Amino acid sequence: MRLFVALPLDETMRDALCRAMEDLRAAGVRGRFSHRENLHLTLAFLGETPRLAQACRAVAGVEAPAFDLRLETFGLFRRQEGSILWAGLTPSAPLLALQRQVAGRLLKDEIDRRLVDGDPFDRQVLQRRLEGYTYKEIASQLDRRPKDVDNALQRIRHKIDGLFD
Q1: pTM
Q2: Tell me, what's the pLDDT at 158?
Q3: Nearest to 108 by CA among 63, 162, 50, 163
Q4: Which of 5, 30, 37, 66 is the most exposed place for a label (fewest CB within 10 A)?
Q5: Strand pairing class (40-48; 2-8)
Q6: The CATH number of domain 117-165 is 1.10.10
Q7: Domain residues of the chain, as ranges?
Q8: Thinking of the domain 2-116, which architecture would CATH place it in?
Q9: Are residues 95 and 69 in contact, defined by beta-carbon separation less than 8 angstroms?
Q10: Phi, psi of 84 (to 5 degrees)
Q11: Is residue 156 predicted with pLDDT exceeding 80?
């Protein structure tokens, strides 16, 4: 299933986008035009994944103040099977903060998922490292050698490899 996190658009924005699509069609622009009811603002694209329930849990409780959306530009995602028209919005601090909050929760969920089957020691090491402790401090707290801490962090890096590319 192709998943993304999105906001619905109000009727005024949908009207503006539908007018723009009609103008583009009239001008001979070819592409796949969305139906009015499918118009939305994508905050995060997750791609093909069966993890709907996990994604919903990850973003549950995200809150943001109301903000205005302003159309700024249009473009095409060119694909072999047909281009997709997109509309770009004027960036705003509240919109960017909401997008960062959503992306941060999804990233944390993905890191947790990749580590869930891991060694409990690895999770303890990661938690302490994220709290700012040094390798030696973590080793002392967990009654292990600093090399054990280094090995755990290498395993963690391997598990989450590719998330930040």
Answers
A1: 0.69
A2: 85
A3: 163
A4: 66
A5: antiparallel
A6: yes
A7: 2-116, 117-165
A8: Alpha-Beta Complex (3.90)
A9: yes
A10: -120, 125
A11: yes
Confidence of residue 134 (pLDDT cuts 50, 70, 90): very high
The 3-state secondary structure of the chain reads CEEEEEEECCHHHHHHHHHHHHHHHHCCCCCECCCHHHCEEEEEEEEECCCHHHHHHHHCCCCCCCCCCCEEEEEEECCCCCCEEEEEECCCHHHHHHHHHHHHHHHHHHHHHHHCCCCHHHHHHHHHHHCCCCHHHHHHHHCCCHHHHHHHHHHHHHHCCCCCC
Q: How far apart are CA 62 and CA 81, in angstroms?
A: 35
pLDDT computed for residue 83 by the predictor: 74
> In this predicted model, what pLDDT tens digit does every residue of 52-110 receive, in sequence order?
998 999 899 898 999 999 989 888 788 787 777 888 999 899 999 999 999 989 888 88
Alpha-carbon distance of 16 to 71, in angstroms, equals: 9
- What is the structure's pLDDT at 164? 64
* pLDDT higher than threshold 70 for residue 152: yes
Pairwise CA distance, residues 41 & 10, whole Å: 11
